[in-house]
């Protein structure tokens, strides 16, 4: 056991005084019962409700009592738009009680835990804007306050200075609460040493749309405006007198819906300012590390969200780690609790206290397979994954065409009629001719094949209408287990009880995922859609010319799957389809229903990320 004492200075290279290390990790030597709790209002550099005053952002702080005697500690921070809906009516000068397990676990180990109410929610001033720059500004202001760069006040008006803070901050959270770390990290904020985005959004456009097509995410009502709905939802529960100008926020929130509706699923400036991907390079400028967690069957915050941001982080060789589990929209405590607490302990010790515990020397990627087992890999996508182009070939026997390395001769074509059917009907029985889809399959695989990365489509097509929706589904054809893991809605995840008692008893956020295993003749591995009118430019759509040929490129969701020997890799090309329980919320363009789409096979390919490259396919 080692007691570490050091000067009380805000340095990323010097450990704070008083922590105790044993087996390379901080020990719970500080009393939680005696910890100091306080409420601070941080001034953000904006006036989002246009009331002539800068917005004040409510912050609950819990920190070891020793910080009153000169000890300086790092901070684990959770920022949420939902606190006002979770905890009733906290008084403006009293904390709401710190929902979650992080405070009880980390405060005794020498950390402060800070929970932040996003602007326009609960006790914070201003108006919510659903992923707008105001979200980011409100939370960034708190990181700045913890580093002495922004003013803070107690409720009585006295100045609040975070002189107990080392300035080292780690943000974590699930769903929208995990999206805010992405937002702040991509601003390159000094002092933000690490972020842990779990089931988090990287682009609000891609949460509400998919490559030009609106997800039928929440309602069959085409006039439904999701961003307006969510801003209105999180603004409920505001408790501080004067913290909200109702007419101003009503106008702001309605304006969000107007802008979303006006975008018509184009990637307009409204959506562009709600994407964190263009600023990913700023994460590296201040050395922020990233630990991502995402479910491979999360059809709410879909898997392209982690993959798109991870791709930006990977190509800049930023410090990173990732867990990919077989589940849906869930908290890691529900499927790997002891390992999760242990890795978070070492991760925060390393990045916030600079304790050399070897966590960065371990394999970068932990991946869970359908049978529940876990594997470790040096990176994701796998370092040995190579892009393999497979061409569409006409049918040789039965109704299924071929996927092969050889492009077909001549100019063969195949057509289908866009019609709404279930995904199961679309992908079922590749050898049966179906008017609403085209199916292409490889020969049976000689050995297991692992896909690791994001498949891409390049399809030459024409249509009989002025609009067209193309959907692609990558399918494992062969009898085997289909694992369905129950997920939760985003609001369920962030509002479920997650106290230490829940962790101990396996309830609340630690309740095990409901898993169902069924033997089926095929499994959909990945899927993706595009509005062909947006194919040349996602920022604006252009009506199609019936009969004209178009070269359309788009991506599916990322794939991390092992396809067994003897099975065939299949690709289904279709248009609209209806949801089923294992793949909810498809994209839809009802105006395209009934049109005929022709695919020109010579010039149409799918690119698969195959570990081992073409040789691994064996054909």
Key descriptive features of the protein:
619 residues, alpha+beta, eleven-stranded mixed beta sheet, ten-stranded mixed beta sheet, 15 helices, disordered N terminus
Structural description of this entry:
The chain is an alpha+beta fold. 20% of the residues lie in helices and 30% in strands. α6 runs antiparallel to α7. It starts with a strand and ends with a helix.
Give the topology, please.
Blueprint: E1 2-4, E2 19-22, E3 25-26, E4 36-43, E5 56-63, E6 73-80, H1 83-86, H2 102-106, E7 112-117, H3 133-146, E8 152-153, E9 165-174, H4 176-185, E10 192-198, H5 204-208, E11 209-210, E12 213-214, H6 226-235, H7 246-263, H8 269-272, H9 281-285, E13 289-295, H10 304-315, E14 320-325, H11 337-353, E15 365-368, E16 374-377, E17 385-393, E18 401-404, E19 413-417, H12 423-427, E20 438-441, E21 449-453, E22 456-463, E23 469-485, H13 490-495, H14 500-505, E24 515-531, E25 550-555, E26 559-563, E27 568-574, E28 596-611, H15 614-617
Helix pairs in contact: 6-7
- Evaluate the radius of gyration: 26 Å
State the helix count: 15
Low-confidence stretches: 3-16, 239-245
Which structural class do you get from the secondary structure elements?
Answer: alpha+beta
Beta-strand portion reads 25-35%
| Main beta sheet strand tally, sense and closure | 11 strands, mixed
Please tell me what the overall shape is. globular
Strand order of the largest sheet: 8-4-5-7-6-9-10-13-14-15-16
C-alpha end-to-end distance = 59 Å
Give the averaged pLDDT, no decimals. 91
**Proportion of helical residues:** 10-25%
